[in-house]
Amino acid sequence: MNIIRLILCILFNFCVLNLGFSIEKINWDELSFSATPTDYIYEAFCELGNEWQEIGLIPYGNIEVSPSSCIYNYGQGIFEGMKAYRTQDNRIVLFRPEENARRFQNGAIRLGMPPISEKMFLNAIKEIVLANIDWIPPYKKGTLYIKIGRAHV
């Protein structure tokens, strides 16, 4: 069965050494740049010839990928990234996510993969950001990096 998976995971742009800590105890000024998983990822899948099916938010964790998947054998995958950050008045903003959605669609078409709709893409971004909102640093303390990956598995 040919399945294409869409995984949106947020990799926090700072190093937090203990994953069992309380977000309220983060000293934003002493963190270094690195990747730390947050609470949730977003997943959707598409069997070739069918429509995209949203699984939605799931707890962050390992994902199962077959050893014979195309991502390993042919490098067939698409990745996009964007940042969520807080403004001075504490609003959460993203920079032109519609452009990321269009690039993601165009990449899928070039690779012969079913494109995901802009509406579904933007909804997934909104869900993943809201689910991990506590991980967005205060104003001028950093950003939350959202890595959007899609692989032919």
Question: What is the strand and helix layout of this fold?
Answer:
Elements: E1 3-12, E2 36-47, E3 53-59, H1 70-73, E4 77-86, E5 92-94, H2 97-110, H3 118-131, E6 144-152
Antiparallel strand pairs: 1-2, 1-6, 2-3, 4-5, 4-6
Helix pairs in contact: 2-3
Strand fraction:
25-35%
Radius of gyration: 16 Å
Distance between the termini: 9 Å
Question: Biggest sheet: strands side by side, in what order?
Answer: 3-2-1-6-4-5
Order of helices and strands: EEEHEEHHE
Q: Looking at the structure, what is the overall shape?
A: globular
The number of distinct helices, counting runs of at least 4 residues, comes to 3
- Main sheet makeup: 6 strands, antiparallel
User: How many strands in all?
Assistant: 6
Low-confidence stretches: 8-21
Overall pLDDT score: 76
Q: Would you mind describing this structure in some detail?
A:
- The longest helix has 14 residues, at 97-110.
- The chain is globular.
- The chain has a 6-stranded antiparallel β-sheet.
- Helix 2 (97-110) packs across helix 3 (118-131).
- The protein is built from 3 helices and 6 strands; from the N terminus they run E-E-E-H-E-E-H-H-E.
- Helices cover 21% and strands 33% of the residues.
- The protein has helices at residues 70-73, 97-110, 118-131, and strands spanning 3-12, 36-47, 53-59, 77-86, 92-94, 144-152.
- By secondary structure, the protein is an alpha+beta fold.
